[in-house]
Design brief:
Blueprint lengths: L15 H19 L6 H8 L3 H8 L2 H19 L2 H13 L10 H8 L4 H19 L7 H21 L10 H17 L3
Helix pairs in contact: 1-2, 1-4, 1-6, 2-3, 3-4, 4-6, 4-7, 5-8, 5-9, 6-8, 7-8
Length: 194
């Protein structure tokens, strides 16, 4: 049995999974920092350290890559988190992100990409609809979808003020302090009579 030829010295061995992961991580960070429209395919490829043709090979388009970034973060979190923990999980994820972390930045991607081009709109709308659906049943009332939308509007507003606008004192507030205040008030939204 013959073994595979050795990789010549100085050449990097091809690893499709590692390349896909680097592209996803680079896109996640750039979409979160700059938004969908301002992020270029070239910029993603440069950050990932690969040829931009590989982005098209693995994801088909920038929109396909955005879809995968959101699916990897927001949709996975949504599907893996019980509805009663979803709001707090999303809030804490947004509040505790730092530039050195490689965690979920899907809310930042959403905030910087929503309304920024038809290509991204469908994917972002789907994410919002799935969050609404998951949260709508928490009140057990007929207006559960409205309550879910109000909760999401608050979450997105907090995200916008903290991560995009950098409005103080919210931008520098301790995550536990923000969660204590928000979650205490949010419980009234779920339990308020119709």
């Amino acid at each position: 049995m013959e073994s595979a030829p050795a990789t010549p010295p100085g050449e990097r061995r091809r690893d499709a999974a590692a390349t896909r992961r680097r592209l996803l991580e680079a896109a996640r960070d750039l979409f979160a920092d700059r938004g969908y429209e301002e992020t270029t395919v070239r910029g993603i490829a440069e950050r990932a350290g690969v040829n931009q043709a590989l982005l098209f090979r693995y994801f088909g388009s920038k929109k396909g890559l955005l879809t995968q970034v959101i699916a990897q973060g927001g949709l996975e979190q949504l599907r893996a988190t019980p509805p009663e923990e979803l709001f707090e999980t999303a809030l804490r994820s947004m509040l505790t992100h730092s530039a050195d972390e490689v965690g979920d930045r899907s809310l930042e991607v959403y905030l910087r990409s929503v309304g920024r081009g038809d290509e991204a709109a469908g994917t972002l709308r789907e994410l919002g609809e799935e969050y609404q659906s998951a949260l709508a049943g928490l009140s057990g009332t007929e207006d559960g979808a409205l309550r879910a939308d109000l909760a999401m509007a608050w979450l997105l507003g907090i995200g916008l003020m903290r991560t995009v606008v950098h409005r103080e004192p919210l931008a520098g507030a301790e995550p536990d302090d923000v969660c204590r205040l928000v979650l205490g008030t949010l419980s009234h939204l779920w339990s308020a009579p119709e």
